[in-house]
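Quick log. Single chain, no ligands specified.
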Amino acid sequence: MTNPIRTATQPLRPHAEQAYEAELEALRAADDRPRPPHWRLSPWAVVTYLMGGVLADGTAISPKYIGSRRLIEVAVATLATDRALLLLGVPGTAKSWVSEHLAAAISDDSTLMIQGTSGTAEEAIRYGWNYARLLAEGPSRQALVPSPVMVAMERGSIARIEELTRIPAEVQDALIMILSEKTLPIPELGLQTQALRGFNVIATANDRDKGINELSSALRRRFNTVVMPLPDSEDDEVNIVTTRVADLSSSLELPEVPTAVDEIRRVVTVFRELRSGVTADGRTKLKSPTGSLSTAEAISVITSGIALSAHFGDGHLRPADVAAGMVGAVVKDPIADRVAWSEYLEVVAREREGWSEFYSACREVS
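-> predicted structure:
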């Protein structure tokens, strides 16, 4: 018997404005505060969308960011001015997540994005050309291929630039005139694109990874910088991981696994102790691995563990399901990190009450 082909129309990862369309519509209906030009929501409503709340009609808005409300207020206030916003922080501090949701709330479009890499060219920030039309017709507006930044300027929308410090320095500087003059010259056509009111740029960057390119002082002055911190408390980090894992499991249509809060808390505890170089009680100093051990990596470990448990286990998330993911997240350097991980297992995990199954599972895959 031939298995029927299942056609899925739901995207694997919906854009923020798609996934939270109902919440955005409810906020627009309830929002009676002043809005900057071309903003779909007022600054107050944008912050409510990010931080969560309950509207007057009883509609619940889920929190997208768990952390300081003031930090998000500063970010939104920056975007209401002519200053661009730089979200700076180590990997896993929700920079991209916040960037996407800010663009979705303000412009109802988070897709005007440039992914920064070492191979990003200046055309990705300014504009390119359809070379077939260029050769056939010569320079014309129809042959020009606008960048996401150029499209955002023409619409009065938010453009996003991910991993700005991975872009070569000479390409980064293409932003200087755009951010200072709000104009993008097109000398080949004798034209220029002037940004409509509401245009702005959200960039993300971190100074932890290798291969980064420092921002010039001229470019950095064009940004207001908001530093995204790691979660303050273990409870906050557990809450973040639990929420994101539930969202991902639903999106990936993973079979339902009974509550995994105990394993989530254990993974978060391990990551926090290794990051800080000391156990939670402050009694034992530890070697810190070379990796960031971010909240994003904890989410990945738990999601992978749920898939293992659902498809190859008994349907309950157990230490054996997360052990391999833990080792992969911690041991990036096969020498230095393996020493740090072995020390943690022997000194902390082995002696900690209720962790014997976790210790054995990690030892088995290490």
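The chain is about 45% helix and 10% strand.
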